[in-house]
Specification:
Layout: E1 2-10, E2 12-13, E3 16-17, E4 22-27, E5 31-35, H1 42-49, E6 57-62, E7 65-66, H2 72-79, E8 80-83, H3 95-102, H4 110-116, H5 118-121, H6 133-146, E9 151-154, H7 163-178, E10 182-185, H8 190-196, E11 199-204, E12 207-212, H9 219-226
Parallel strand pairs: 5-10, 5-11, 8-9, 9-10
Antiparallel strand pairs: 1-4, 1-6, 2-3, 6-7, 11-12
Helix pairs in contact: 3-6, 4-6
Bound molecules: adenosine-5'-triphosphate (ATP).
């Protein structure tokens, strides 16, 4: 069943158009990698889905309901958990408070999150501002999970993190996938991203230019669209 359907969205920053027709579907339980070089529209697509930048045209449906005219908090309540670029934890709240503030009923609780990220369990009483970048990313993921979302969106899942911590984040993403969590993920580490993705959606200049399975994303296509 289709969980998220993005069809032909066009999104602007003031007078400047950033998206010119992005199409993207996510089925229940699917992991989709949103790819493209810098500035091609990945973050804007995510912001459009979450209601932070409303598209001027096109359609976004989540669980069968139109969401492209809804407020961000309503979209979150429908079951989209965002892990934004730059993490944005509340610095003056403790780890526990950050998690509790996001909590909505469901299977994810503080115990579940600290089971996934034991480092957070050791730091529940610490202020988020005292955490390392990697721990803040774990907290941002934990906070999204505490909302018990139907879809988790990770914008730059491991950017700027130490290699060991990156591995912890990828391990967590693989565990979530194994549990059937639907995920939309952006990351530059192809070697980790491709094996975890069921499908890839590639953006170029604000348009969806290619969709397919990771094994179909040949080196030629990677050269053409991702410059690697
Ligand atoms: P990156 O990997 O660098 O984050 P991206 O694929 O996420 O890139 P976006 O950040 O969505 O790309 O940017 C898409 C386009 O929108 C770019 O041309 C960018 O310059 C423009 N853009 C992004 N944010 C703004 C903004 N606040 N105001 C004006 N234009 C913006």
């Amino acid at each position: 069943m289709t969980l998220l359907r993005v069809a032909g969205i066009e999104t602007f920053y003031g007078a400047s158009q950033a998206l010119f027709g992005v199409d993207l579907d996510i089925a229940e339980g699917e992991v989709v990698a949103l790819m493209g070089r810098n500035g091609m529209g990945k973050t804007t697509t995510i912001r459009s889905i979450c209601g932070l930048n409303r598209p001027r045209s096109g359609a976004i449906e989540f669980g069968g309901a139109a969401i492209d005219r809804r407020q961000p908090f309503r979209i979150a309540r429908l079951g989209i958990g965002l892990v934004p670029e730059g993490r944005r934890c509340f610095p003056n709240l403790t780890v526990r408070e950050n998690l509790v503030a996001a909590a909505r009923p469901g299977k994810w609780t503080i115990d579940g999150v600290t089971g996934l990220f034991p480092r957070l369990g050791e730091r529940l009483g610490q202020y988020a501002s005292t955490l390392s970048g990697g721990e803040q990313q774990m907290l941002a993921i934990g906070r999204a999970l505490m909302t018990n979302p139907r879809l988790v969106i990770l914008d730059e899942a491991t950017e700027g993190l130490a290699p060991v911590i990156r591995q912890d984040i990828w391990t967590a993403i693989r565990k979530l996938k194994a549990e059937g969590q639907s995920i939309l993920v952006v990351d530059k580490t192809m070697a980790e991203l491709l094996p975890v993705a069921d499908r890839c959606v590639v953006l170029e200049k604000g348009r969806t230019v290619w969709t397919g399975r990771p094994q179909e994303l040949t080196e030629d296509l990677q050269d053409r669209y991702l410059g690697v």
